[in-house]
From TrEMBL:
Keywords: Membrane, Transmembrane, Transmembrane helix. This is NDR1/HIN1-Like protein 3-like. It is found in: Membrane. InterPro entries: LEA_2 (IPR004864), NDR1-like (IPR044839). Coiled coil: none annotated. The chain crosses the membrane at residues 20-42. Residues 77-177 form the Late embryogenesis abundant protein LEA-2 subgroup domain. It comes from Nicotiana tabacum (Common tobacco). It comes from the Eukaryota. Pfam families: LEA_2. GO terms for biological process: defense response to other organism. It is a single-pass membrane protein. GO terms for cellular component: plasma membrane; plasmodesma.
Amino acid sequence: MSVKECTHHKDRKQKLIRRLCAGILIFLFIVLLTILLIWAILQPKKPRFILQDATIFNFNVSAPNIFSTSIQVTIFSRNPNDNIGVYYEKMHVYANYHNQQITYYTQIPSVYQGHKDVNIWSPYVSSNNVPIAPYNGPDLKQDQQNGGVWLDFKIDGRVKWKVGTFTSGHYHLHVRCPAYVPFGNNPGDGGIIVGNNAVKYQLARSCDVSV
């Protein structure tokens, strides 16, 4: 075989590889463009969360830095999308005080939320003799004695979007529900006695949602 024939064969192979690569790139571009167009037409919106109420069963700083509590919260979630469903997975709720977690994680069952659908969860967040930061213990006890405490009820989990038969990959879900929880028997507190030493407070607080 001559040198000219070898060169010609090599050129043909290189052209074939270039055409193959160009075809793959064009295909990927069309797929991505289609997804972007669908996404733009559907205009997906983040789920909406509201912290409706909190029932305090126990809230006690038993030592300077030892904390115990049991709180039942009612969380309202709504899917505002007309054509997109939401899968909620591996969700956990807990309470923070001054950026420190002060309760254990409580799991919320996985669920599918259809178009414009609503879900309501009523998990308990609790802790039992949990050590907290030295600077938070006295502040927490003082806030309680003063008649109320600011808490952040948080939800961490994962979501997937469903459009027709297409289901997206996982996205991280972060929900933060700041709420001022009052204590005491003042008429303005809005507390309702629901059991032995248990008081329910209507909060109706909107939550910040990040996906």
